[in-house]
Structures are given as C-alpha cells and as structure tokens.
Amino acid sequence: MCGITGYIGQQQVVPVLLGALQKLEYRGYDSAGIAVLNNGELLVRKAKGRLTVLEERLAHETIAGTLGIGHTRWATHGEPSDINSHPHTDVSGRIAVVHNGIIENYARLKEWLQARDVVFRSDTDTEVIAHLINYYYQTSPGGASGGLLAAVLEVLKRLEGSYAIAVVAGDFPDRLIAVRKDSPLIVGLGKGENLIASDVPALLAHTREVYFLEDREVAILYRDHVDLFTEQGEKILRAPSHVDWDVESAEKGGFAHFMLKEIHEQAKAFADTLRPRLKTIAQSSGSTADAEYDINFDEITLDASWATAPRIVITACGTAWHAAMVGKYAFEHFARIPVEVDIASEYRYRGPVFNRDDIFMVISQSGETADTLAAMRLAKKGGARILAITNVVGSTLSREADLVLYTWAGPEIAVASTKAFTTQLMCIYLLALKLGRLRSLVSGTDYQRYLVALARVSAQAEMVLGKKDMIQRFASRQFNKHKVFFMGRLFDYAVSLESALKLKEISYTHSEAFAAGELKHGPIALVDENTLVVAIATQHELFDKIASNIREVTSRGASSLVITWEGEKGFSPIADEVFTIPKTEDSLSPLLSIIPSQLFAYYCAVQRGNDPDKPRNLAKSVTVE
Ligand code: M6R
Asked: In degrees to the nearest 10, what's the CA dihedral of 362, 420, 371, 377?
C-alpha cells in the first residue's frame, strides 16, 4: 500500500502535494517524493524516511510550478532508499510516474526493456511503467503525435497486477493522466484546479466533488476540466459524487477506527497475499473451481533441502506467536514435519538446541521486535538458515533473514494486529501446502482442493464481515463480563489464544484461552455466572468433545457463544448464541474463525469507552526488551 497524489491548477504545487501526502502518510511512510513540471522541465525530489525528511529538504529550495505528482511509499519491490522512492522517470527524464500497487509481471517487462537498451536505476516494479510509456510514446502509431494518452493505453495492455498510477510529462504541461486497477484512486474536481489522490482526505482541502475511478478507467486532468476514458480510449460521461464525510472519518475510510478499517481490509489483504503466489496453470472455464493451481514463490526457492528438513522451528511474539501456533498445526498436518514453536523472548535465554538442517522461521508484522530479532540472530549465529515472514519491506528482520516472505497486508496502524495476523496465516498455509506437495504427502487432488479453498477465502471473509452487526449486538450485551474464556482444540486452540489476546489488549477484560481438554485440569474452577465462554468449534472430528466442554461450562452458570461452520446445527441447543462462518476446509479455519473474535474485541472496547486504536500501556512496535 502506498499513497499517490497529483495536482494541476493555479496554486504553487509543492505545498499542495505535501499537504496531500500528509493525509496519505498512513498508507506508507518509508519514503516520499514529488515531481513538478517547471517550464517544461521535470524536477524530481525524493527522500527515504518519513515525509518530514522530504519536507526538510524542500524547505531549502524554491520549486515553482502548478502541475505535479507525489508519492508516499510502503516498499514492496526494493528496499526503502532514495533511489527506490517514487516518482520514477523514463530514460529521458521527461516522463514521471507514481504508482500504488504491484506490477506482477515487472520482471518480464524489465527484461524486455533491457533488451532494448533501457538502463534501470531502481529495484522497483514501478520503473518499468515510466520506461514503457516513453517506449510507446516514441514508437506507437503516429509516434509522439499519438500523444501521452495513446502511450499510456498501450502500456496498460501490458501490465499485470494492481495499480493506481499518475503520469506527468514535460511535453504536456497542460495535463496529468491517472488510471487505476485494483488500487483506489479518486479524482477531485476543483475550480480552476483538479487533483487526484489514493484517498478522500487528501482532496478535502480543495473539493468535495469527486469521481471515484472505476477499475481500468483513465482520467485526464486539465486545469479547467477532467475527461474520463475507458482503457480502449472511449470517452465516459458520468456525474461526479459529493463527499460529505468529515476529515477525521475520511482518514479512516469512513470507519470509526483504524482497527475496524483494518479488520475490513482483510478480504483484500488475503487476495493481495495470495495473488502473486497462487498461479493458475490451467483454466477450463471462468470459475475458480475449474482452475488448476500451483503455488510459486517468486521471492524464495524451496530447494530439495526443504523437502527433507527434519524440523521447523518458529519463534515470534504476541499475535505473530499465535500465527506460529497455527503454523505448528499446519506444517505438521500437511507436510508431517515436526514443528517447535517458541516465544522469542524465551528462546533466546534457554540455550536452544538447533540443527543446521532445520528450517528456522521468524514471524513479525513490524520486522523490528527486539526479542524476535535477538532470537533470529542467535539462530543465525548457530548456523541456521532463516526464513522471515514480515509485513515491512526493508525492516531489520527482512534485511538480516536469508529468505523473506512478505505478507502484503499494507500498513497496520491500530496497535491490535488483525490483517497482519491473517496474512501471516495465509503465507504459512501456502508454505505448508507447498511443502506437503513437495514431500508427496498431499495428493494432487487434495492440493487442488485446498488451493481452490484458499482462493475463496477472500470472498468468504467478506461474508463474515457482512454479519458484523450480530457480533456488535452480542458485544453490547456481554461487554461487562468480568471474565471471558476462549476454548478450542487444535487449530481452534491457536485461534482461541489470539482471540483472548485481542480482547484483553483493547477491552481490558480479563480473558484467557484454554485448550478445551485442559478445562477439567484446573481452569474450570474459575467458571461462574460472570463468565462468558467462547468456544471455537471448526474441527469436525472433535465436535462431540467440544460440545461436552460447552455443557461443562454452561452447567456452571457461564454464558456461551460458539463460532462454527454454517449449517452446523449441533451447537444451537447447548449454547446461548451461535455465530457461523462460511464453510472451508477444517484445517484452514483460522483464516475465517478469528474474524468474529476480532470484531467482538473491537465492539467490547468501544462499548467500554476505550480507544481501540491506542490501547493503554501498549506500543505498535516493541523495539526494546
Ligand atoms: O511486529 P510484531 O509482529 O513482531 O509484533 C509482535 C507483538 O508485539 C504484537 O503482535 C502484539 O502482540 C500486538 N499488539 C498484538 O495485537
């Protein structure tokens, strides 16, 4: 996720772009840049670091101009650096581009351009766009007279992936071109000025009249009007929309808090995590079920040593440790590799025994958690090869690990982790299934069935979110409970751990998770009429067992909620409430079963008057021991 903006009008563009970038900085903050058209010449300024670094640099010079584009970056391809920051320019330096999204076929496009003597300066996927526009600008029918639009339309035919793009060119001081597919882009219509941005708040200082660009629509912004086109170059006529959000809620996309926004972003985050790795190798019809898939990690190679690794060791903290717990069940289930899961802060002090052939994994949203880094360094010193799963490109973890899988969740602002967790799970499932297949433990038919199930998860997450009012109502009745216990077995136990952490960290309710079979060994002594017990029940073979556990707690006065599959009737007679999630494979259930718990924690926190985005005593990134 990055933020892009652009302006054409009467005002000096630098302060306008910086103002918009401040509003977009939540979308990415590892670097920022602008390009301004000044007397036919493009001036590009960019800097690694927060937007303030760029602002300080710009404070020392005057850049005049009334047309420009800007970018705030959340690195995906290429570490955060001045060079990799946007805007990117073509070889002539006369075309500048900013981009939000991922160009999946950039490596092929880069080779194609290099074969035509184009020299690349950055490691980004975006740079291919600038060079391709120049290529078609110079060579398309009609040559340069074909114009910038013709060149952009040619380039769109070649791009695979997601993008919101803005383009300016020295030869065209009267226009800015913008286009989107699978990444948001909004056109703001002002008086004598027009602008674009990835999100509404960046436009509100200028206008409330907007076009929400549809996928594959192209906009040409002039000072006095805006034209919209299809990607075939046909003109589109439609009325603008009026935005009446206040600025604060607009920053959160209309949601009351970043946490709620990020819970909702999970459906898209699943798709973003999956898309570059799930390759369609055959397709007999347009339907997901008829496709044949494989998993391919462009960023890591799973050589033969992966298939023969004797053990996987995973360390992490907090929510990432819960993802590791799901990983334990997933790797053992699909690939039959023994997995040891360790809390990173414990691992570093217990004189761990590792074997050079083990796979050592570290999981961290931020990639900066002190304990996780220390555990990784210890293992590395002992000769282990490290695979990191992280959300932040250029983080310390990503730089020091041997192999990195990015979760592509986009920036997570709320302290309580939600979309980072579920995308960590998605990466784990992809790895576990691939290893299972490499070790011939998952049959070809089962492999396809699981991959089809993964491809459906994004849509199923939307369905769970569509029923959030039920959870809200439930929370409004239960938020004052003194104790909330989550219980489950196997995958459901791992989800219980994460559910209890979510609830305690933002609602400050005393909540714990138990492996349901452990209840009788002690925890049941805590159960009374002030207790809510949430049972996660998605493992068919253990339904009878969990049903007994539910009876045990309700007969001692506890209220109960069961989270289970749609169509499961067995729990309604024994529980106070049942919340159902769309059916997927039992072994993939955590991808969906955690969402009701995230919503429950969120609504309890709100009911109790807490700020879920900034819970007391907690920090987003724990960089000290
Ligand atoms: O950035 P990391 O994933 O390494 O962070 C680990 C934990 O600090 C983090 O998951 C923490 O538990 C969150 N507040 C959970 O919501």
From this structure: 30
Q: Which residue has the tokens 């002992």?
A: 382
Specify the DSSP element, H or E, that contains 364.
strand 359-364
Work out the widest C-alpha separation in the chain, in whole angstroms.
82
Ligand 1 centroid to Cα of residue 324, in Å, is 12
Distance 423 CA to ligand 1 centre (A): 14
Buried-state track 551-588, b at ≥16 Cβ within 10 A, e below 16: ebbbeeebbbbbbbbeebeebeebbbbbbbbbbbebbb
pLDDT of residue 142: 54
User: Is residue 319 lining ligand 1, measured as CB closer than 6 Å?
Assistant: yes
Mean pLDDT of the region 388-412: 89
CA 130 to chain centre: 25
Q: In this structure, are residues 209 and 163 in contact, taking their beta carbons and an 8 Å threshold?
A: no
The token pair that represents 486 in the structure block: 């989550």
Atom 14 in ligand 1: which residue has the minimum CA distance? Answer: 416
The rounded distance, in Å, linking the Cα atoms of 470 and 473 is 5
Burial of 456 (C-beta count, 10 Å sphere; 0-12/13-18/19+): middle
pLDDT tens by residue, 88-98:
999 999 999 99
pLDDT tens per residue across span 560-596: 999 999 999 999 999 999 999 999 999 999 999 999 9
List strand residue ranges (DSSP E) for 146-259, in order: 161-169, 176-181, 186-189, 194-197, 209-212, 218-221, 226-229, 235-236, 241-242
d(CA 99, CA 126): 6
The mean of the pLDDT values for the chain is 92
Could you report how far apart the first and last alpha carbons of the chain are, in Å? 29
Q: Which domains does the chain have, with CATH numbers?
A: 3-250 (3.60.20.10), 253-459 (3.40.50.10490), 467-625 (3.40.50.10490)
Distance CA 471, CA 609 (A): 17
Element (H, E) at 5: strand 3-8
> Known catalytic residues?
2, 620
48: tokens are 């690694």
Distances (CA, A) of 110 to 52, 443, 475, 533, 542: 32, 36, 52, 55, 52
Mutation probe of ligand 1 site: the residue of 395, 417, 620 with most atoms within 8 A of C-beta: 417
Measured CA distances, 552 to 136, 494, 519, 544, 557 (Å): 71, 21, 9, 12, 9
Residue 413's pLDDT is what?
87
- What is the per-residue pLDDT for 553? 95
